[in-house]
Amino acid sequence: MPVARLAKRNILRNRHDYLIYFLTLVIGVAVFYAFNSIVAQEQVLQLSDSQMQIVQLLGQLIGGVSFFFAIALGFLMIYASGFLVRRRKREFAIYLLLGMPKRKVAAILLVETAVVGIAALAVGLLLGIALSQAMLYITSALFAMQVEGFAFVFSGHAALMTLLCFAVVFIAIALFNSGSITRFKLIDLLNANRVSQRVKIRSIGVSVAIFLVSIGFLATAYALFLKRGFESGPFFIEVTVLLVIGTFGFFFSSSGFLLRVFQGNRKHYLKNLNMFTLRQINSRVNTAFISITFVCLALFLAITATCGGFSINRALNDSLRTSTPFDATVTLYPVGDSTVPDLDIAQTLRDQGPRYDSLIEQSVQIDFHSSAFTPRQLDVTSGYTPSSIMETGTWLDEDLPAVSISQLNALRAMRGEAPLALADDEFGFWCDMDMVHDLYSSYLATGEGVTVGGVELHASSWGVVSDTLQTRPINMNSGVIVVPDAVADMLGTSETNPSILDMMYDGSREECEPAVTEMLDNAENALGGDGGYVLRYQTALSIYTQQDGLSVLISYLAIYIGAILLILCGAILALQQLFDVADNAPSYKLLRQLGATRSMVSSAVFKQISVYFFFPLVLGLAHSIVALYVVTDVVKVFGQFDIVQPLATTLILTLVVYGGYFLITYLTARSVIDR
Amino acid sequence: MESVLLCKDVEKYYGNRSNLAKALDGVSFEVGRGEFVAIMGASGSGKTTLLNCISTIDRASAGHIYVNGVDITTFSGKQLSAFRRDQLGFVFQDANLLDTLTGYENIALALTIMGEDPKEIDTKVHGIAQTLSIADVLDHYPHQMSGGQKQRMAAARAMVKKPQLILADEPTGALDSKSARALLESLSMLNEELSATILMVTHDAFAASYCGRVTFIKDGKLFTELRRGTSDRKAFFERIIETVAFMGGE
Q: Which domains are seen in chain B, by residue range?
């Protein structure tokens, strides 16, 4: 029989074994192509320069991640085809026995892998093109723009890259397979199915000891990480090492531990097929714990990266709502070494052009004064622990600027809020960052006052006010002392904090934006910096546009990294379980002969596959929750946010990809047993 | 004598209309309670097909098989599992123990599948292991046992649930002569002391000589039958050899 016909027949006969292999390649190719073609979308989307930059940056980042993805997928495929070869040893032995040269056997295998590989590549590319088309509409929605009519995007670059990567993977598999065939010994091949597997037996006592030590390692890693967070230094490596060793030990010993616990409970151990299921899991975990550890750590990364990405996104978007109450903010920066000039910004702008009053309805200027009072002087002894982030940098030793009460009240009036009362010997704090808010309220709770400009001031009745200072991507007013006007007049201007002008348009943002930006651009250019200062401005709408781009960047990266890691994990476990079930088909047949019902055997298989899929998921999730607890502390810099929704989105993604693999594995396994 | 197994005109065909092979061609026979019966025949005579039909692993094309008066050829799905679980015990050519389970657990498995009370399991497993002299290897895994020990372990697994009928398919096929003798003596003892009903398929005259009755099958049909009666095992062995020689020469 010619090689091609044999290969075709073999593929059809082994279609169950090839299914997962094929599916993983298809999904891999599709995701790989779709994300790498993102840059090509700029052809049909009318992107601004800043958006274009973001898309190109995204392209580069995804390209980098894809490189590792391709390598990992390559190893996975080699692993899978290794299994396929092992399962068919007897078949190859018969070819060799009939006098077929090893070269030809290798050729058959090569043709089989090539046919399945090329089919998967073709289907995967088609699916990838469909997926990238769907992503085009998502991108345009995220950038808040319309796609005119039907636009078709095909990225030759991405297609070529996909082809190239998978050609390399394929060649690696082909080399690996022919290598393993030439090493075959006929006698081993023929006996392959007869040799009863030797069960590696590990002393149960040792398992229990290792299990307890691993739990200790994990607990230490968690505790250290929760306490020290992302502080840099050798300790971060310690946590990582503890976590990896702990995870490794956990899977190395947990099945033995579990077995011990169940054996202690005769009633459950000696019920139905429980004994068989547990023994089966135990015997396999002894050899599979390395890949399970890998899967667990990859799941941990996937969940943390995806959820972390979504959280930052969410925090940014949430804070955007509160950080842009004004239509625009103009900032007055000194040039060179000069100090911030004492200047009426509104008047300066008015001098530049006649349109100022027709475009700007209201504006309020805020000037900062030097108070010579640093956050370190806020001696808070009890009830408050500063976030580790506040300890880094020099913030604690820099001046808290002072602002006069009348400017604060003017700003409040512009937003339609009641003025705050402040007596001549009183002060208040003004801070719009959630994470430092508590520092001020805790200090006020101690009853201490502050001395500014030689005047002793007591706390006002309102204490801390959290109004937004200016329109920005995120709230970043980490603290200002609000003082009576008389005190403010005595203080010099702040060296580090430029004056700002918050303004409201005379009309809607969309209507006024073009004219206002034109006017402000002109003023920026005209004032140049010759007078010892420059003006810079940010409008709420320009911030939204930038933010949209950042959202796209973070969301896509989070989903991409999460999805590929989940695909890898799902594929590893699915392959392992299916080959395992196929290897153990005689055992399941025996159980049926002994009178176990079909549902008893199915349920044993279900339990076994569940344990393999969900143990690493549960531990990975536990790692993630600890990591995310610390991540949220970092994310809080961007503003208060709710972790529930990002976590829910991540879990849904996990459930769909990982759960999908679980379901396919179980259904295929059941059909293998029923055969 | 009360009959445990009754086969009536059992037929089994393979292939299709144009190319029909009759593996069993109208086989009828009976096994009474407490009997130890051997079915002998050459390769391809149909003896294993017959055993597979009785054990419900395969389905007869025609005819009826009654176990304890119930026709098992009409069974389907759950009834088949229940029948195999409650009424049959198997001993295969290669012991077919589960590699991942200890000897104790392999025997206990037959009971847990039946839903036996866990409290009873310990006593029953140790009891049967004592009888078959394998109590000392109960904690071993199959790969730590000799071929004979594995085969007796399999016999214990078949016997522990006190089935109506034990089916043994070439149980000595993979054993050396010493282990084979030990296993056959164990089977005889199960038959004599615990009144187990055993139907054994074999092509080995020596193995067959341990039985009370030998049925010969040839080309899918019953050929003849020998009863041991009062003669000793050696004499019975001679008679079996004569019959085999006669069958082969015909």
A: 3-249 (3.40.50.300)
Residue with tokens 């990982």: A658
A585 to chain B: nearest residue by CA?
A: B98
The two structure tokens encoding residue A636: 């809080």
Question: Same domain, yes or no, for A387 and A450?
Answer: yes
Tell whether A443 and A529 lie within a shared domain: yes
Measure the CA–CA gap between A129 and A137, rounded to whole angstroms: 13
Helices and strands (DSSP H and E) totals, chain A: 22, 9
Looking at residue B117, what is its pLDDT? 86
The answer to whether residue B84 neighbours chain A at the CB level (below 8 Å) is: yes
Residue A280 confidence (pLDDT) above 70: yes
Q: How many C-beta neighbours within 10 Å does residue A461 have?
A: 10
Rounded to whole angstroms, the Cα distance separating A321 from A317 reads 7
Region A417-425: what's the mean pLDDT? 91
Predicted local confidence at residue A383, as pLDDT: 58
Scan for tokens 């023929």, then name that residue: A190
Report how far residue A477's alpha carbon sits from residue A474's, in angstroms, rounded to the nearest whole number.
9
∠ CA A598-A603-A606 to the nearest 5 degrees? 125
Closest-CA distance, A274 to chain B, in angstroms, reads 9
Q: Are residues A260 and A185 in the same domain?
A: no
CB contact under 8 A, B100 and A595: no
Say whether A279 and B113 touch across the interface (CB within 8 A): no
Is B69 an 8 Å CB contact of chain A?
A: no
Nearest CA in chain B to A588: B98
Give domain status of residue A630, yes or no.
Answer: no
The token duo for A240 is 């990582």
pLDDT one-digit tens code per residue, B77-105 = 788 888 888 888 888 888 888 888 899 99
- Inspect the interface and report whether the beta carbons of A279 and B101 lie closer than 8 Å: yes
The residues in A 237-266 lying below 8 A from B, measured between CB atoms, are 266
Instruction: Give pLDDT, residue A392.
Output: 61
Domain that holds residue A101: 1-195
- Cβ-nearest to A271 among B100, B118, B143: B118
User: Best mutation site among B54, B84, B106, B113 for testing chain A: the one with the most A CBs within 10 Å?
Assistant: B113
Residue of B nearest to A268 (CA): B118
pLDDT number for residue A389: 58
Q: What is the pLDDT of residue B206?
A: 92
Q: Which residues of chain A are within 8 Å of residue B78 when distances are taken between CB atoms?
A: 597
A196 → closest Cβ in B83, B108, B143: B143
CA distance B90 to chain A (A): 8
Query: How many structural domains does chain A have?
Result: 3
Which of these three, A195, A227, A246, is where a domain ends? A195
Contacts of B114 in chain A (CB under 8 A): 595
- Cβ-defined contact of A593 to B84 (cutoff 8 Å): yes
DSSP states of A64-130 as a string?
A: HHHHHHHHHHHHHHHHHHHHHHHHTHHHHHHHHHTT--HHHHHHHHHHHHHHHHHHHHHHHHHHHHH
B245 touches chain A (CB under 8 A): no
* Nearest chain A CA: its distance from B59 CA (Å): 14
Same domain, yes or no, for A176 and A203? no
Q: Are residues A207 and A344 in the same domain?
A: no
Whether residue A102 sits in one domain with residue A12: yes
A241 and A344 together in one domain: no
pLDDT band at A390 (very low <50, low <70, confident <90, very high): low
CB contact under 8 A, B109 and A595: no
Residues A75 and A142 in one domain: yes
**pLDDT value, residue A554:** 82
The percent of residues above 70 in pLDDT, for chain B, comes to: 99
Distance from C-alpha of A491 to C-alpha of A94, rounded to nearest angstrom: 96
In 3D space, the residue among B160, B100, B114, B95 whose CA is nearest the CA of residue A270 turns out to be B114
